[in-house]
Amino acid sequence: MTSIPISDGSGVLDRYTHFALPDSGQRTVDVWCPPDYDKSPDARYPVLYMHDGQNLFDPALAYGGVDWGIDEAILRLIHESDLPGAIIVGIWNSGEGRWLDYMPQQPAQLPTVQATFADWGRANSALIRSDSYLKFLMEELKLFIDATYRTLPDQPHTLVMGSSMGGLISLYALEQYPHVFGGAGCLSTHWPAGGDPLVDFMGAHLPPPGSHKLYFDYGTTTLDALYEPFQQRMDARLAAAGYARGVNWVTRKFEGAQHNEAAWRARVDLPLAFLLGEHS
């Protein structure tokens, strides 16, 4: 483990490089704690697991040279509200294998979903390994985090978030492990990866709304311009399942927003406030 002080004083980042997934090799995981973590030895924190971890904290590592600024966003929430902050666990993606990790595996076996793969240059659904990726999160990573850090390990305080394909795997994680995750943030969810059949599968497997919170959003330009009709379809599924908009479900549209880290950085405060706010 390497501890990396963040230059603006917004905490210390612990970087672990020893995790090994059986079908995708070594994986780096970053863990960020609020600056007062060491000053409050009795305090425990919610945990937010985030995909594409190399894009979260350091612009030198982030795709396109812009990071999410997730540490600054958490600090704004702490300073502007009574929220206690959170521990952020950023799981780095596997580069060329990212799609295999993040494409929901069970709906990917449907012929109607597979029909969309060629449009995105994805030919072999048999290689998809998102079930294995989530098993790693559950059976190794979460156990390690809860044993190493002062977490609130229960379901209401265990959250997951990502963008694009990371949005898909976040929703899939909550659906596969509803007893573990209390909320999911899905920014610019890449529904076209499986089209309407993917939306319908995910919508049919939503957990009951009483103890879960779901955040979705999308922009209107670049790749995000494709998303609105799919998200509207999912919104109808959420309403039919009993989710209440503005209570345990939020969908937001951002006019002019693009599909990139700069756009997600600009609005990440919103899903954070919703997911970390008062739990139902």
Protein described:
With 280 residues, the protein is of the alpha/beta class. Helix content is 33%, strand content 20%. It has a single domain (2-276), classed as Alpha/Beta hydrolase fold, catalytic domain (Rossmann fold), CATH 3.40.50.1820. The protein has 10 helices and 9 strands. Helix 7 (195-204) packs parallel to helix 8. The radius of gyration is 18 Å and the shape is globular.
Keywords:
9-stranded mixed β-sheet, 10 helices, 33% helix, 280 residues, alpha/beta, Rossmann fold
Principal-axis shape: globular
CATH top level label = Alpha Beta
Contiguous low-pLDDT stretches (5 residues minimum) are: none
Number of helices: 10
DSSP strand tally: 9
Helix content: 25-40%
The CATH topology label is Rossmann fold
Main structural class: alpha/beta
Q: Roughly what fraction of the amino acids lie in strands?
A: 15-25%
The major sheet is characterized as: 9 strands, mixed
- The H-level CATH homologous superfamily, spelled out, is Alpha/Beta hydrolase fold, catalytic domain
Termini, distance in Å? 36 Å
Global mean pLDDT: 92
For the CA atoms, what is the radius of gyration? 18 Å
Task: Trace the largest sheet across and list its strands.
Answer: 1-2-3-5-4-6-7-8-9
Please tell me the total number of domains. Answer: 1
User: Which CATH architecture?
Assistant: 3-Layer(aba) Sandwich
List the helices and strands in order.
Answer: EEEEHEHHHHEHEHEHEHH
